[in-house]
Write a structure and sequence with these properties.
DUF6533 domain-containing protein; 6 helices; transmembrane helix; DUF6533; flat
Length: about 120
């Protein structure tokens, strides 16, 4: 509810500052970051209301929920990393090595989640 409230009270600013200006890569990155959380929340909440009956087992419903949840949660880290690296790039007077380092470090949670979610059985 708090997320929806924040979107509602800032929507007029978004229209004025984003939608009425030229579309750039930064614009699309902003929109991805802004709406990814809301879309993920709506999708996952809608999956919790799936009917469970004799034809649709709980295991199958949970399996489908997990298959949708994992990619949605993993993909939220990459746009944040891109935004952070673009910000560093702008503030550091186009220092590409520093921006690249920030991107790699900001992708750390993504890498950790992938490794923990899909552990290797071989060493």
């Amino acid at each position: 509810a708090l997320l929806a409230y924040e979107y509602l009270i800032t929507f007029t600013d978004e229209v004025r500052l984003i939608w009425l200006h030229k579309k750039t890569g930064a614009t699309f990155l902003f929109l991805i970051i802004r709406y990814h959380a809301m879309i993920t929340l709506l999708i996952l909440q809608s999956l919790t209301f799936l009917p469970v009956s004799d034809e649709v087992s709980v295991d199958r419903t949970c399996s489908m929920y997990a298959k949708v949840q994992v990619p949605l949660q993993f993909t939220e880290f990459v746009p944040w990393a891109a935004f952070s690296s673009l910000r560093v790039l702008a503030l550091s007077r186009m220092n590409y090595p520093l921006a690249s380092l920030v991107f790699v470090l900001a992708c750390g949670p993504f890498a950790v989640n992938v490794v923990c979610r899909f552990p290797s059985t071989t060493f």
